[in-house]
Amino acid sequence: MVSIVGPAVDGKGEGAKEGGRYTLRELRMEAFDLVQQLHEEGLSYTQIIDEVERRLGVKIGKSNCSYWVRRIHSPYNGIYIGSIELLQPTEDLAYLIGTEAGDAYATKTDEGTRGEKYIIGLKVKDKEFADEYATRIARVLGRDAPEPKPNKDGRWVVRIRSKVLYQLFKKPIDIDRIRPFVEYSERCVAMFLRGFFDSEGCVDKRGAMTVYNTDYQLLLYVMYLLKKLGIETTSDTPKIKTRGGTSFKDPKKGKTYHHNKDYYYLRIRMPSNETFYNWVGFTIERKKRRLEEYLRRRGRLPPANQPPIFSPMHIVKALPANAAGGI
């Protein structure tokens, strides 16, 4: 039996569950979520304590159970978000929604007596993408950033537990549910698009940008958001790439894949690449580099090896107001 009574339950202590899969903090978080669930079901403090001990094999004190029920203390670094309505619209959250609409995942598993487990995660080949995802999800939840870990396939994996984000991110994406967070401001729109294009976007050697997805309505929504920022697409609606029920062979991997659903795409008009670069951009360096190479070929960016040019006015603007008059 593991005891998590005492000061450690406020989230300040750290440690590992001896012989177990979770750190002590993760175990406290699981116990905290279960306490909230059991309280909503109408159980008394004594019943909650007994049920937590039965399901998780941990013992919490009555005073700590009371603190958790009233959310005075929390293992979530002092920040507990119990419902979608309590989430704040931020650029970080908008970016995460964009990634979840693409490569990222939200899953729920039933672990029997341990209850349901809600996992938010990302598995990608670009380390900078995994780092960005981890940093932003930590800021949204008020937790320490999870460390991206490489798997046997050479991809970087980020995983974190959050019931409220699962409810927001679960697929198919509920567009009406995400709208208040995505369309809160122009910067939130831009960060949603960055997350989505980081996940689903491709930039070819010519500089053409394309995104693929099986969700037709989601791509329509993406086109609507692009238009809000003055970014045009090559068509008014998503185009079909591959019909469901067909197979194709990946020439790079030599593997054959089967599409169960229709596969759609949209493409950015090349004249809008500069607007996309200025408003949205990429986190992933290889995609960002190809877009910049296109813009340099068009004279829209200075050569990569050209040092920045400073004028006297740049110097004046950089100085305090009372110092500028002395130049």
Automatic annotation (TrEMBL):
Transmembrane regions listed in the UniProt entry: none
SUPFAM superfamilies reported for this sequence: Homing endonucleases
PROSITE patterns in the cross-refs: INTEIN_ENDONUCLEASE
MF-aspect GO terms: endonuclease activity
InterPro entries registered for this protein in UniProt: Homing_endonucl, INTEIN, Intein_endonuc_central, LAGLIDADG_dom
Residues annotated as domain DOD-type homing endonuclease: 192-231
Pfam families reported in the protein's UniProt record: LAGLIDADG_3 (PF14528)
GO biological process: intein-mediated protein splicing
Name the UniProt record assigns to this protein: DOD-type homing endonuclease domain-containing protein
Organism: Caldiarchaeum subterraneum
